[in-house]
Structure formats: C-alpha cells, structure tokens
Amino acid sequence: MFSGVENGSVSVDSGHARLHELGYKQELNRDLSVVSNFAFSFSIISVLTGVTTLYNTGLTYGGPVSLAYGWLIAGAFTMIVGLSMSEICSSYPTSGGLYYWSAKLAGPGWAPFASWITGWFNIVGQWAVTTSIDYSLAQLISVIILLSTGGNNGGGYEASKYVVICFHGAILLLHAIINSLPITWLSLFGQVAAAWNLVGVFVLMILIPSVATERASAKFVFTHFNTDNGEGINSKVYIFVLGLLMSQYTLTGYDASAHMTEETKSADKNGPRGIISSIGISVIVGWGYILGITFAVTDISYLLDENNDAGGYAIAEIFYQVFKSRYGTGVGGIICLGVVAVAIFFCGMSSVTSNSRMAYAFSRDGAMPFSSVWHKVNNQEVPINAVWLSALISFCMALTSLGSSVAFQAMVSIATIGLYIAYALPIFFRVTLARKSFIPGPFNLGRYGILVGWIAVLWVATISVLFSLPVSYPITNETLNYTPVAVGCLFILVITSWIFGARHWFRGPITNIDG
User: Fold this and answer.
1) What burial letters (b/e) apply to 343-361, b meaning 16+ CB within 10 Å?
2) Cα dist. 265→33, 46, 274 in Å?
3) 120 and which of 11, 55, 348, 494 could share a cystine (Cβ 3.0–4.6 Å)?
4) pLDDT band per the 50, 70, 90 thresholds, residue 137
5) Each residue's pLDDT tens digit, 322-334
C-alpha cells in the first residue's frame, strides 16, 4: 500500500496513491495534465453548443432579460454545485465519480442502493447529453445546408427528419472512431477543442455585433422583457423561469473532470481544479457570447418565425442577416455557423469520452448487464467496448425524434434533470449521512462545506420542479411537458430493477486490488 507520495526512490503520483488506497488498480494511462482535464469539461459545457442550440428558448421566454440575468443566476448556483462536487472529488478521485462517491458517503448499509441509483441516473443522463449534443449538430448542419442552397425563402434544400437522423448517426460514428484512439491523442484533441471553444466565443461575440448594420440599444439588451411568447403564459416570473432552461442545460457535463481523474496527474488536486475552472470560465465567456449576440437582435418575433430564411433557427438567422444586410450575401454568417458546428462536434466528442469512462467504471463494479464486456481495455488502455456502446445507445435514443418532437424533448430533459439528480445525490449524502465521517482531500471548503452542500441540493431540487412545469397553455398531447414522465419512468425502472434483482447481487463499488 502506498502510504506516502515517495515510495523508495520512485515518486508516486498523489492521485495514483489515493486510488490505490481506495482499493483500485491503475489500469488506465495517467497522462493528463490539469489543462487537459479542464479541457474535457470545458468542451462538454461548450458555451457555443448550449447557447446556440437553445437561444430560441431564451428568446421566447423572456428574451434579453432571461438571457442576460438567467445566465448569471444559473451560473452562480452551478458554481455552488461544482464547489461541492470538487470537495468530494478531491477525496475520491476515481473515474466512477458520482456513484462511487455516493457509495462511500452513504455508509456501508446504504452504499449499494446509493451507488446504484446515482450511477444509473448519471449514465443515462450522460447518454442523453450525447444524444442531444450530436442531434443538435445534425440539425445545425441541415440549417447550414438550407442557407447555403438559398435559404427557406429562396428554394433552399430542407432536410427531412430521416436525413437529420442519418447525419446524427454519421457524427456518432466519427466520435466513436476518434474515442478509440489512445488517450494521448484524445488529450490533444481535447485541448484543441477547448481552444476552439474559447477563441470561437471571443471571435463571434465581437464579430457579430460589429458587422451588424442595426444594433439593439443597451437598454434593450439589459431591460427588455419579452412576454409575447405565443404560448399562453403571461406571468413574468413563470416566463423567466422557463427561460432559465437554456442556461442550465448549457452548464452541465463538468462531471467529466471527475470521470477523467484516473487518467489525470495529481488528480486529488487537479480534478477539483478542472471542475471549478471549467464552470468559472464558461460562465464568464458565455455571458459575453450571449450579450454579443443579443446586441444584434432587433426583431424577436421575426427571428423566431418559421418562415424566415433559417426556418426559425434564431442564431442562424441572426448570423445570416447580419452579413447579408452589410455585404449583400450571407456567406460570412454561414462560415460563422461552421465555427459553431465544429465546437459542437468537439463537444460531442468529449461527451462520448466521458460516457465511456463512466460505463467502464460502472461495469468494473458489475452494475451493467454484460459488465465483463464493457470494462475491457485494449492494448492502448482505452475502454474500447464502452466507447462503442455509448455511441450506439445515443443513436438509439435519438430515434425517438422520428416518432415525435415531444418524445425527443423528453430525452433532452433527462439530460438536464437526470444528470443534476446524479450530481446532487452524493452531495446530499455528504451533508446528511456523512456529515461527521467525511474526510476531506487536499481541496476542501472547510466549515462552509455543509452550507454550500445544502444550497447545491436545494437548487437541484428547485430546478427539477421548475423544468417539469408546462411550457405552453392550454395543455394538449403536443404541448405537455414530458420531463416528469421521462424522469419518473427512469426512476421507476432504476428502483424496480433494484428491488427485483440488483439488491441480491450488487454490492456497490468493488475493489480490484487483490490481497
């Protein structure tokens, strides 16, 4: 057992030593620096992805006020959740992440159940995140093709939902191939992705308002509240809350830093640094991006109109019109959309990486059907089967879009709520069952740990309720918010499988160091 960091004359990595103390062998290649660890989470949060794909939601529900202030509110609370997660990550740097933490913090009696429910919410939430990222890229590609061939009003090519699902499948295939490469390659891609996201945001937030011939006033950007949503909702508070979804959906996925800890040097310090820096930097640059784009908004109802050139895709229409009004052609706008598309591609790539590490760890502990298959690593120390499984499941989840947009929306909601429930469970156990027994790692919040933890848990409980509210009245089959149905079904499945099967054989995380 490594007790210190020095072992004879060989220096042992502190994360490696801690992993050994927790009872796990070092099977993955520990090669990532703190920058690489940050890069994975930053690329998954990917401001360009979340804001671009859900800008319509923000514009519809509250407009500029929801966008500008909703982002800061969601950002502040997300940082609180991140701080709590970082404190736990510092103590338990394993790629199982959340479900391993739940097992340790819930105590021996509750450990198997706590890790079962956290693990399944985490992994299904992650698969849903990959599904929605890659599907939104497929949609953006179809909008780019539409605009490149003349736009909605100029006889442009409008892709059918079958073409979009083919795009989606092709993107996932590419992501699975890239994720089959050794971690040194992935680390390089991850850093390029983070740089692309960072530079892309700065370029677009300066370029778009600069090129625009008509700009909104600062008064419009910071004080205009759009109540004209066409959804039958008039209460300003209600509208603002629905507008928060864009911000909260964007600010997810930073658990990637925890899932990459077994491949990160000094993970007990660098894992937490990865989580906190990825949230902090995303909140700052994301706010700049939102404001920059909103300064180019002059007519909200036109941007959301399905009859505009981009078919109602607000950000695409903004980019296209800004260049068209100044230069007589929208080509520059299409190129800007290409910059966003590359960022979304990287975002999906990092998401599959995070998925596969979670599936690897979860199956290492025997929680998944055919576990022995999924936790195999190849000669390059890559959990190759878990990579392809994650891509396949994400493709299957997107097939719901062929049935109805409502079913697909339910999938996306699992991405936000399912993941956040998985984030909150270990924090909840940390502030309740493990209040006295928790042994902090090098990064800790000291006496504020409990207070910060409770705020984080209450925020997650609040958004889980808020995002289950109807988004349109009167309520019909088409307008019903299926979030509670989707998350409820997942909950019932997880609990039933526990009662009728898993409780007899699942013992929670299994150590794999013999002796």
Assistant:
1) bbbbbbbbbbbbbbbbbbb
2) 6, 24, 12
3) 494
4) very high
5) 999 999 888 999 9
Look up tokens 């099967």; give the residue: 501
Q: List, in order, residues 6 or more apart from 211 with CB less than 8 Å away.
A: 322, 323, 326, 332
User: Which one-letter amino acid corresponds to residue 386?
Assistant: A
Q: Are 6 and 12 in contact (CB under 8 A)?
A: yes
- Between CA 40 and CA 275 the distance in angstroms is 10
- Phi, psi (5° rounding) for residue 7? -130, 95
Q: Are 268 and 34 in contact (CB under 8 A)?
A: no
The two three-digit tokens of residue 228, written as one number: 């004209």
Write the pLDDT tens digit of every residue in 167-226. 999 999 999 999 998 888 888 888 888 899 889 999 998 999 999 888 889 999 999 988
Angle (CA) 410-411-413 rounded to 5° is: 65
Contact by Cβ (8 Å): 192, 198? no
412's CB contacts (< 8 A; 6+ apart) are 128, 131, 132, 249
For residues 382 and 120, give the distance between their C-alpha atoms in angstroms, rounded to a whole number: 22
Q: Are 348 and 141 in contact (CB under 8 A)?
A: no
Which phi-psi region, left, alpha or beta, contains residue 348 (left: φ > 0; alpha: ψ -120 to 50)?
A: alpha
- Helix (H) / strand (E) element for 294: namely helix 267-294
pLDDT reading at 79 higher than 70: yes
* Angle 44-317-416 from CA coordinates, rounded to 5°: 30
pLDDT band at 400 (very low <50, low <70, confident <90, very high): confident
Distances, alpha carbon 477 to alpha carbons 219, 401, 404, 419, in Å: 39, 16, 11, 26
CB 323 within 8 A of CB 211: yes
Phi, psi (deg, nearest 5) at residue 281: -70, -35
State how far the Cα of 193 lies from the Cα of 347, in Å rounded to an integer: 8
Tokens of 472: 């349109």
Q: Which backbone phi and psi does 404 adopt, to 5 degrees?
A: -160, 150
Question: Residue 469, SS3?
Answer: coil
Q: Who's near 16: CB < 8 A, 6+ residues apart?
A: 2, 26, 30
The model's pLDDT over 96-135, given as tens digits with 9 standing for 90+, comes to 788 889 998 998 889 999 999 999 998 899 899 899 899 9
Contact 321, 59 (CB under 8 A): no
Strands 6-7 and 10-11 turn out to be antiparallel
Contact 455, 80 (CB under 8 A): yes
What is the 3 state secondary structure string of 403-439? HCHHHHHHHHHHHHHHHHHHHHHHHHHHHCCCCCCCC
Q: Which two tokens stand for residue 215?
A: 């700009």
Instruction: Locate 106 and state its tokens.
Output: 């819930």
